[in-house]
Amino acid sequence: MLKIKKLHVNIDGKKILKGIDLDVNPGEIHAIMGPNGSGKSTLSSVIAGREEFEINKGDIIFEGESILELSPEERAQFGIFLSFQYPVEIPGVTVTNFVKTAINETRKARGEEDMPASEMLKLMREKSELLKIDRAFLSRSLNQGFSGGEKKRNEIFQMAMLKPKLSILDETDSGLDIDALKIVAEGVNKTRSKNNATILITHYQRLLDYIVPDFVHVLYNGKIVKSGDKELAKELEKRGYDWVIETVS
Ligand code: ADP
Ligand code: MG
Ligand code: MG
């Protein structure tokens, strides 16, 4: 589904990613871990197509085609979802209306009609039940006064409604409490299928107690320095990152 080939990325002339290779197949969950400043958020932003980065070398292939020339909106239409894409507060726009607009914008870009209201309602009902989201939450203004957990709930609801092929969840927030982590985990687990894939960026091994990744990668200083399975995350929790870093520096 996603193939990252020898990706080198700069910001303001500074080398941030220094040759990333990553293959993600349908049905897989990949966790990307690593110390602060390693380039994890840069990697997720580059996949989603944020434009402040210079791609010097390498390629990002999604479903067989290079996406480097596509805008973030076009990548979203192809089924790439990045969490925290819309962290803005929008007074007067409800959680429901925001997600409806996002769905219909995507359809419009594909030359399709708006989703019929009855179908939208059914989808909304199905996903809010799945994720145990109540009606009061759906009619709140987007992100206004949301707690950390509510922001996560909103994000996960958007993800469930949009049904992306590839979700990239960048769990940057060190203030996330255990309830918020559980909301994310439940959302990922319940929307998981053999057709979609998730890249989960986290420095918390704890999140991986709730989401079992197929692969764990350690990103350090712009490179993936170690890959393994879920046992690697457990080892990192016990031993920290230093033992991995020592082997490369
Ligand atoms: P992580 O998510 O692993 O903590 P980041 O991708 O946020 O790492 O950052 C990687 C490196 O890139 C850091 O050294 C950071 O200072 C630098 N960086 C990130 N964004 C920018 C930016 N917009 N301008 C300049 N440097 C940046
Ligand atoms: Mg950081
Ligand atoms: Mg980060």
TrEMBL record:
Coiled-coil ranges from the UniProt annotation: none
One Pfam family this sequence matches: ABC_tran
SMART domains tied to this protein: AAA (SM00382)
Keyword Ligase among record annotations: no
Keyword annotations: ATP-binding, Nucleotide-binding
Xref: Gene3D superfamilies: P-loop containing nucleotide triphosphate hydrolases (3.40.50.300)
GO molecular function: ATP binding; ATP hydrolysis activity
Residue span(s) of domain ABC transporter: 2-246
SUPFAM superfamilies linked to this entry: P-loop containing nucleoside triphosphate hydrolases (SSF52540)
Matches recorded under InterPro entries: AAA+_ATPase (IPR003593), ABC_transporter-like_ATP-bd (IPR003439), FeS-cluster_ATPase_SufC (IPR010230), P-loop_NTPase (IPR027417)
Protein name per the record: ABC transporter, ATP-binding protein
Source organism of this protein record: Elysia marginata
